[in-house]
Write a structure and sequence with these properties.
It is globular and about 45 Å long. The protein contains 8 helices and 10 strands. 40% of the residues lie in helices and 18% in strands. Helix 4 packs across helix 5. The strands form 2 sheets. Strands 1, 2, 3, 8, 9 and 10 form a 6-stranded parallel β-sheet that branches. A 4-stranded mixed β-sheet has the order 4-5-6-7. It has 237 residues and is of the alpha/beta class. Strand 6 and strand 7 form a beta hairpin.
Length: 237
């Protein structure tokens, strides 16, 4: 089974733009496009901000724009008592998810960006959110364990590999990222690398991301965006 590689980048703003452009240049030299994750209320930028101009330019050049939630609220239902704090779309019923998706899409269009692809904050999505995504015409949802075609129901397994914070330390995280990607690429199927632009100012994580991409390419992974993956109808070939 051949491998497919998808690299996503989140956290793009004025503070991280230099790091984002640096990573993009490195990936361009390797022939690897980016899936750019945008959350309208989190990024809080005007339509003519340098970061959003860069995102639009990248999208025009072939990168994919992916809606990454609305504001990453840990308790979007505004419950009086929160027993367990969830990611924004991790536990929403369809009605609540629908309201937030409509608002997020409207804000995104004000920034002159449009997309039918969705990746929830922390990659966690409820069944209600999947229902709301279909109702709103979204074509793809990328969650923590798979990428779903919301039109035909196809599910392509592939866990996200990233640099989530843990007390085990940065060096272990970098090693685990490269090792996990190498293992997935050798097995074939979908290899997903998630990058937060806020981590790229540190040399260790930045090099780990590039090493992970290089080892996936070494094992023959085909670089795609989430949009490119969807256009292939998520077929495993």
């Amino acid at each position: 089974m051949s491998s497919r590689l998808v690299v996503s980048l989140s956290g793009i703003n004025a503070r991280t733009l230099a790091q984002a452009t640096g990573l993009a240049a490195e990936l361009d030299s390797r022939g690897v496009p980016l899936s750019l994750l945008v959350a309208p209320r989190v990024d809080r930028q005007s339509a003519d901000s340098p970061a959003l101009r860069w995102v639009r330019g990248r999208a025009a050049g072939g990168d994919a724009v992916v809606l990454h939630g609305l504001d990453h609220d840990l308790d979007p239902c505004r419950r009086t008592l929160v027993i367990r704090r969830q990611a924004e779309f991790a536990a929403l019923p369809a009605h609540e998810a629908n309201l937030r998706l409509v608002a997020a899409r409207a804000l995104l269009e004000r920034l002159d960006l449009r997309t039918d692809y969705f990746a929830p904050p922390r990659w966690l999505v409820s069944n209600g959110t999947l229902i709301a995504l279909r109702r709103n015409g979204f074509r793809l949802c990328a969650d923590v364990t798979a990428v779903r075609d919301l039109h035909n129901g196809t599910v392509l397994p592939g866990r996200v590999h990233g640099l989530a914070r843990t007390e085990r330390g940065e060096q272990w995280l970098c090693w685990a990222l490269v090792l996990g990607v190498a293992r997935s690429a050798r097995r074939g199927g979908l290899v997903r690398v998630a990058v937060d632009a806020g981590d790229l100012h540190r040399p260790g994580p930045r090099q780990a991301v590039l090493d992970a991409v290089d080892i996936a390419l070494h094992h023959g992974a085909e670089p795609l965006t989430y949009g490119g993956l969807h256009r292939r109808r998520l077929a495993v070939s």
